[in-house]
Amino acid sequence: MATVHDKVFVPFISKEDIQQRVKELADSINADYEGKNPLLIGILNGSFIFAADLFRHLTVNAEISFIKLASYKGTTSTGNVVTAIGMEEDLHGRHVIIVEDIIDTGKTLSAFLPEIHHRQPASVKIATFLTKPEALKFNVVADYTAFKIENKFVVGYGLDYDGLGRNLPDLYILKEEEPKSETIPAEA
Ligand code: IMP
Ligand code: MG
Questions:
Q1: According to the model, what pLDDT value does residue 182 have?
Q2: Considering the domain boundaries, does residue 48 fall inside one?
């Protein structure tokens, strides 16, 4: 068990299983990008641990850079504009792999992807540590997913609950509330 702020989390995916799966994703990327020079773009803060582990297993000539996303109210149909802070790389003609910690509703990435495409990369793929298929509301499809999980809050392996929990090497899931024992009225 792990207590983060006021909430109790229980072990969900072990660090061994995580490492195994991340290695498998890296193997797929190595096969798919053979002879290419992909540029990984990690979305901070959540992706930094996944991105580091994934990157270590890459054997193709790969580069990595990190950005932060800032969202503000804009005039687009979705209402929000998401812009990248710290994106200095020239993406023109590059094979870009976006690295995310989790795709929840997909809102962040769906708002950000147009900005990437606007920079005319040769290709864009998404590698995410987690997806929550039941929570998805926007049309974002990951190309590489380590784990599909149920629609519950998780912490660890880079993911936080209000800033804490990112340093847990395993993934933890929010503990179910104990059902309140009902008072059954005595039969009359
Ligand atoms: P989306 O825009 O709804 O896909 O939200 C994605 C972002 O929400 C992620 O990058 C996380 O920062 C955060 N998030 C969503 N679900 C979780 C979770 O279970 N634990 C920690 N952060 C989460
Ligand atoms: Mg995030």
A1: 64
A2: yes
Atom of ligand 1 nearest to the CA of 161: 21
Picking from 8, 2, 42, the residue whose alpha carbon sits closest to that of residue 176 is 8
User: What residues make up the domain containing 70?
Assistant: 15-149
CA of 108 to the centre of ligand 2 (A): 8
pLDDT in tens, 26-59: 999 999 999 999 999 999 999 999 999 999 999 9
**Cis ω for the linkage preceding 30 (within 30 of 0):** no
CA angle in degrees (0–180, nearest 5) for 55-86-48: 30
Burial class of residue 87 (count of CB atoms within 10 Å of its CB; 0-12, 13-18, 19+): middle
Regions of the chain with pLDDT less than 70: 72-79, 81, 179-188
List the CATH number of the domain containing 78: 3.40.50.2020
Q: How far is the CA of 9 from the centre of ligand 2 (A)?
A: 19
Tell me which residues have their CB closer than 6 angstroms to ligand 1: 46, 101-108, 153-155, 159-160
Q: Is residue 3 part of a domain?
A: no
